[in-house]
Write a structure and sequence with these properties.
heterodimer; A: six-stranded mixed β-sheet; five-stranded antiparallel β-sheet; 22 strands; B: mainly alpha; two-stranded antiparallel sheet; about 70% helix
Amino acid sequence: MAKISLQNLKHSYSATPQSDGDYALKRLSLDWADGGAYALLGPSGCGKTTLLNLISGLLIPSEGRILFNDVDVSRATPEERNIAQVFQFPVIYDTMTVYNNLAFPLRNRSVAEAEVDRRVREIAGMLDLTKTLGNRASGLTADGKQKISLGRGLVRSDVNVIMFDEPLTVIDPHLKWQLRSKLKELHQRTRRTMIYVTHDQTEALTFADQVVVMKDGEVVQTGTPVDLFERPMHTFVGHFIGSPGMNVLPCEVKGGKASFAGHPVTTVNAKAYKGKGQKLELGVRPEFVRIVKKGIPADVVKVSDAGRFRIVETRSSGGSIKLLIPEGEAVPEGKTHLAFDADHTQVYENGWMVGAKP
Amino acid sequence: MSAKTVNQKAWFLVAPVFALVAFNALIPLMTVVNYSVQETFGDNVFTWAGVQWFEQVLHSDRFHGALLRQITFSAIVLAIEIPLGLGIALTMPRKGPWVSVCLVLMSLPLLIPYNVVGAMWNIMALPDIGLLGKGINALGIDYNYTRQPISAWFTLVLMDVWHWTSLVALLCYAGLVSIPDAYYQAAKVDGAKTWAVFRYIQLPKLKHVLTIAVLLRFMDSFMIYTEAVVLTGGGPGNATTFLSIDLVKTAIGQFDLGPAAAMSLIYFIIILAVSWLFYTLMMKNEEI
C-alpha cells in the first residue's frame, strides 16, 4: 500500500510534441493518501485513462515524476510497481479455472502453494465466487468475469494501488449497482488505495472519498462529492456533475454586487471580483432555485417528472433556468417568479469561480 | 405461445442451391461411385463388380505403401510447418513500416503455382548445377534426389515448408493481432513472463486459427501431387509415389478405372475422417 504523488506530470502520444494540443495530459500534480478511494471523472477523451496507464506503468510519462511512498517509479515496469488494474472489458485466462485465474498473479511471483490457496479462498469468499472456483472461467457471465479480474487485483496482499478503468461498462444495469456496492465494501474491508476511472458521475460519487474532475487533459477540480456539488470551481464541473446540471446564466457585477437580468442577486463571492469586464456568469444549481411571490420573472416552459421531484424549465429575460420541485408540491403554470439561494449562488469569470485559488 | 406456423415454401427458395450442389459435387461423385462398383472394357459396356475393387485396393501392398508414405509426408510437414509458422508469426512486428514488408514477403511463396514451385526446386536442387544441390554436395554430403529416396524426401519436405509455412504464419499473425491489448496489459500487471503469456493468452486465443491452419495444411499435403511429379515423377523407384500419384497411375496409366474409382473413394473417406478427427479433438471442451 502506498501514498501516491504525481509531480508535474505531462504526457504526449507524439514523440515530438509541438504545442499544448499535442499533450493528452497537461501538467498535473496530485497527492493521494494511502488507503484512500479516489475517482477520476471526466468525459471521454479527457485523458483519464492516459493518467491511469501512467500510474500503472503501462505508459511512461513524457515529463514529470510519479512517486510511490516517496520513491520515484516513473520509469518502472508495472510488475516493479506492484499494482493491480481492472480493465474496461473483463480479462480472464480462458483455459484456466476460476481458482487458477485468481492464483495466477501469486504463482507468477512464486508464492508458496499453501499461501496461494489461503488467499484465493479468502478473496473468492469476499466476491461470492467460492461455488464457481472449480469451473472454467470462460463459461462465466460478464459480471462473473469482471469479478475474477477484480479478484486477481485483490489477491496479492502487498499491492500498492488497485486501479479500475471504467470496470462496469459491460455489466448489466441491475448488476452494476451490486458490483458498485461490492467495491465500496471491499475498499472498507481491505483499505487499499483504489483509483477508479469513469465518466459516470454516479459511479464516481458513490465510490470515492475524493473525486478528481478532468477536462481536456487538465484537472478542473479535486474534492469530496459534496464539494463538487456545492462549490463547483468551474462551470464545467457544475454542468458535468448533477442531473440536471447547474444553471449558468450571464450576469453583471458592479461594486461587489451581482445582478441578473436587471435584478440584484446575492451571491457567495461577488465581493471578490476585481472587475475587468471579462465574461461573467452566475452559477446556481436547480436544487437551489425557488418559486417566490416577488423576484425574477419567468415563464414555465416545460415540466418533466423525474420520480422524487419534477424538473421545471422556465424562460426568463436572461436565459433559460431549470429548477426542481419536490414530489407533491404544486407546480406553477405560466408566469411565475424565481429566487436563488444566496449560499449556493456563485459568480464565475471565464468559467472559473471568482475568488477561488487557480 | 401460439403453435409454430408450418410453411414449406422455403424449399422452393433453396432449390437452386440444391441443383448447383448436385451438379458440381454430387453428380461427379456419383459417377465415381458408379465406376467403383462396375467393370468396364470400354464402349460404355459395364458389368456389375460389387465390392471387388474395394477389396482389391484395401488388400494391395501397393496401396498400403502409398498410404504409409502419404501419412508420413503429411505428419512431417505438419510437425514442421505449424510450430515454425507460429514462431514466425510471434516474431513478426505488430506495427511500423516493417509490417507491410513482412506481409508481402510472406505472401510471395503463396502466389507461385505448384508446378512452378516444383520446377524451381527441381533446378535448384540439381546436384551438378543447382545452387542448393551443389552447395550440399560441396559440404561433403552425397545428395542426389534422382537416385536417393532420402534426398528426394528432403527436397520435397523443404519445398513444401518453403511454399506453405507462410500460410500458417499469416493465419497465426492475423489471430495474434486480433488479441485485445488489455490481455497483454493484464498479464504484465499480473507479473506473467513471456512463456506464461504465450501459454495462457496467445495459444488459447489462437486455437481456432490453428485448427484451420492444421486442417488446411493436412488436406493440402495429403493431396500432394504436382511437386512430386515435377521433381522425380514419384521416384526414385516409387519412393515418393504418394496416393494421388498412385491414383493417376492406376487410372490413366493402366486404365484400371474400377480400382482407381474405388481408391478415390477410400482416399476421400480418409481425408474426411482425419479432418473430422482433428476438428473434434481441437474443439474439445469448447463452449461457445
